[in-house]
Amino acid sequence: MFWRLLNGLAGAVGAGSLSQFPTYYQQYLQRLGGRLDQAQIQVSRIEQAARDEGMTLAAYIDKFTSSADTTYRQQGAVLREEVADLSRLRDAVDALIQAPPIARPLRLLQNIDMDTARTALGDFALSLPLTTEGFVYAGIGLILGLLILAGLERLLSGLFRRQRTA
Description:
This protein is mostly helical. The chain folds into 2 domains: 1-20 and 130-166; 29-125, no CATH class. It has 7 helices and no strands. It has helices at 2-18, 21-52, 57-65, 70-98, 104-110, 114-122, 132-165. Helix 2 (21-52) crosses helix 4. The chain is elongated and about 80 Å long. The mean pLDDT is 87.
């Protein structure tokens, strides 16, 4: 009776936990998309400033980074980071949007932005995902929960056998 209850609990915890992934993924992607939108605005402003000076973006940033003044060099480094952030965020959002549902956990790990992940997790609210994707992840979670419990059962029974024979 105890093991049946434990199996049911492990399966339910696994299913319930992993079924939340599609919702978290969606919320993370929305936040990352918002950061991408803001980065596009910022880089557009930098590009406009470069055009106003009759320069390319690269030449404009190089003018800052090659300056003898440390303040201008630091500003050039900030401008360069803004452009790099835009590229990184665009690549990450594209990769996450194009990922098939079963590959999303791996794609998320490959493209994770820890600040965005933390804030998305901090604001995350549990949901009842009634989608095919939610059911698939719940099924995977159920199996993983049962496998983890089976592994723990084997480990503990092996430890108890050793103690009895010692």
